Amino acid sequence: MLNYFLKGEKGTRLRFMGMLLSAILVLLSVFTLTQKGLNFGLDFTGGYLTEFTTSQSVELKELQSFIAKNHNGEFELTALGNSHFQLREAPSASTTSTTANSLDWQSAVTQNDDINAQVLSSAYIGSQVGDELFDQGCLAMFAAMIAVMLYLAVRFEWRLAVGSVVALVHDLILVLGLFSLLQIEFNLTVLASLLAIIGYSLNDSIIVGDRVRELLRVQSNNVLSPATIINNAIKSTLTRTLITSGTTLATVASVWLLAGAPLQGFAIALFTGIVVGTFSSICIAATLPELLGLSAKNYEVKVDAHTQTLLDMP
């Protein structure tokens, strides 16, 4: 079915329409990021992190409502199990105020007979540590991007390399835009998922790019147009791409649904990255080089005048 849509001009038109859609989504993501920003988690902003258990199963909404009556600041309550909870408190302007809030709600949940909570751990993460983690994470992502660009520059002709890099940036921006739009917490696990997306997106683009390069090299007589060659390359790798993406998505979906709240952001980012990475490997990594003038001539063996003279000699 999909191979039918990738035939001839129809396939080329679909690829260009997909690239146009990608450009619109990137612009919307950038706009959302500039307007709403990211909802940084406690790993980056600092604050108190408390884990506690209850003697019996308690509904999350009921417990959240009860704690809100004894807490004056902002907090986020997460259920780690039926009777296991985690509470994150954003740092306030006054450390004394934050400490008082923590003591108030902890006393309330431990002394209430219906809840009868027991605090397992309570720790404070300073904002300086959060800033350092954010800087190191961004540095790791920047180093990964530089390594990818160097690898692509060596492996591919520059047009295919540019297409792969643009597809990679496209995937990261769309994931960040989704997190900004939905205000999903951005923490260290999500940052780690972005590094995983870089690797996955690169792998997908290289599979398609390698096939395009192979078909261009055998078309020394230029019988087929670059658009037809690219369509053929995508068709020949489409089954492999869909099977790989499908099995990976099934695994990530299982983590999303079964691993609980701590890994939910990681799974959402990775799931989104795989979907848009598969899309961009077709609509950007394989289509942008065509706009930049990629053709079979780029892979013709160039022979200098002296070598040509020797070849022409009887």
TrEMBL record:
GO biological process: intracellular protein transmembrane transport; protein targeting; protein transport by the Sec complex
Transmembrane domains' residue ranges: 12-33, 133-153, 160-182, 241-259, 265-288
GO MF annotation list: protein-transporting ATPase activity
GO CC annotations, alphabetized: plasma membrane
Predominant location: membrane
Coiled coil: none
Keywords for the protein's UniProt record, in alphabetical order: Cell membrane, Membrane, Protein transport, Translocation, Transmembrane, Transmembrane helix, Transport
Protein export membrane protein SecD/SecF C-terminal domain residues: 109-288
Cellular compartment(s): Cell membrane
Gene3D superfamilies (alphabetical): Multidrug efflux transporter AcrB transmembrane domain
Topological type in the membrane: Multi-pass membrane protein
Family: Belongs to the SecD/SecF family. SecF subfamily.
Record NCBIfam families: 2A0604s01, transloc_SecF
Purpose: Part of the Sec protein translocase complex. Interacts with the SecYEG preprotein conducting channel. SecDF uses the proton motive force (PMF) to complete protein translocation after the ATP-dependent function of SecA.
Assembly information from the UniProt record: Forms a complex with SecD. Part of the essential Sec protein translocation apparatus which comprises SecA, SecYEG and auxiliary proteins SecDF-YajC and YidC.
HAMAP family the UniProt entry points to: SecF_B
Name of this chain's protein: Protein-export membrane protein SecF
Gene expressing this chain: secF
